[in-house]
Amino acid sequence: MAKSRTAYTCSECGATSARWSGQCPDCKAWNTMVESVVEPQGVNRMSQTAHKALA
User: Fold this and answer.
1) Cβ-contact 4, 37 below 8 angstroms
2) 34-47: pLDDT as tens digits
3) Tally of structural domains, the chain
4) The domain containing residue 30 runs over which residues?
5) Phi, psi (deg, nearest 5) at residue 49
6) Which of 15, 39, 50, 53 has the highest local Cβ count within 10 Å?
7) How far apart are CA 7 and CA 31, in angstroms?
């Protein structure tokens, strides 16, 4: 199973970054970077569960 990753999104302009910063690199607003967990693309949890049940 793929590992989820963390992304940081500016609450002012919507810019994203892989690393936290006190100031948004795009709009330069301070303390606006919000942490969120990004699920890996292409992962379908229902099909994984069904596949394990059949094995």
Assistant:
1) yes
2) 999 988 876 556 65
3) 1
4) 5-54
5) -65, -45
6) 15
7) 15
Torsional class of 23: left (φ above 0), alpha (ψ -120 to 50), beta (otherwise):
beta
Helix (H, G, I), strand (E, B) or coil at 11: coil
pLDDT digits (tens, 9 = 90+) for 9-35: 999 999 999 999 999 999 999 999 999
Which residues of 1-55 form beta strands (DSSP E)? 5-10, 16-17, 33-38
Q: How far apart are CA 14 and CA 25, in angstroms?
A: 11
Strands in 5-46 per DSSP E: 5-10, 16-17, 33-38
Sign of the Cα torsion 24, 30, 32, 35 reads positive
Which residue type is seen at 49? T
